[in-house]
Amino acid sequence: MQIATIHAPTAELHFAASKATRFFHAVTTWFQQEYLQLIGSLLMFACATLVVLLLHMLITKLLLPYLNRQNRSRLGPLILEAGAAPFCGLLLIAGTYFAFWPLLESFSDTVIGRTDRFFLTIAAGVVAWGLLRATRIVDFLLRRAAGGLHAELDELWLSLINKALRVTICVLAIFFIGQRIIGLNISAMIAGAGVAGLAIALASRDTVSNIFGSLMIAMDKPFTVGQRIRGIGFDGTVEHVGFRSTRIRQNSGHVFSIPNSKIADVGLENLSQRAFVRHTFDLNLPQSNRQQLEQTIQIVQDLFANRPFAVPEEPVRVHYNSFDQKNISIRFIIPFLHPDLPRLQTYLENTNLQLIDALTAANIPAATPVFPDHLS
Description:
Structural class: alpha+beta
Order of helices and strands: HHHHHHHEEEEHEEHEEHE
Mean pLDDT: 75
Helix content: 55-70%
Number of helices: 10
Shape: elongated
Number of strands: 9
Largest sheet: 5 strands, antiparallel
Strand order of the largest sheet: 4-3-2-1-5
């Protein structure tokens, strides 16, 4: 028993050395028989690589700039940009396969079959990559068709269509490579992953609700990119609507994201779809006689008579807001068509300064603060 234990490692080492010797001898014999064919295959592979590189340079450095200089349809250059690299990749795969095919004939059918599946897998991956790049062509065609029909195809729908296409291409590529090329039983694997699928479904419940929220936003269209919205806890301009969340930039410049499920559930106000905005401010005057009050109202109405963004059917409204023992408060409500906000704020600033000058010239004292105003 002790002798067997001592000689067992020696026997294993001898067997491994013998196996390595046979393998080295087989490789040496194969190389002596096929070295000319190997050199020829390497030369063919080098020529195929050189041709593919020259073709890619011809497309990207000569043909593509030429089409861009023609200032014609963007579709041609877009097709070249999306398809040049995948097309050249397929040519390189085909050239490599046919360059080394004569060498494969000296191997067994098992090796040939595995090599074929390897090249088919790479080719299928390159085709899937090309289809993913082609989604930008679909995006361009949708935008052009929407513009030609004068229809509104907002950024949200374009983003949803683009992402759905990309996800579909990836899933189909995985199924095709796994089941048709490698030979995996994808259906049985999915059926056997029931518990794991249930756990994933529970973990991704919020993600699914956000996706349905984005679909609700896309169908109902309560807002589009570039519009200002206001809701509970947020007020700003919509910059991006994705599958999971909506990105909003506040007037302060801060950017924050809100899950689409919350936006779809809560009420919100689209400020960009208002017919007009109201500029409201209170003018506080010390106790004055009727003539001074009427003169003050006339001064304000004259200042805003020729205002930009005026609403013809909405005049300047004046109300006696409140009064006490010291002051009388007059509220002015001036409507404006939905304007460029920075331009309106500049106009209001200049008009307020003119109002101070006009009240001073008329000897009408105004209590401070004169303009606790806001836009609504």
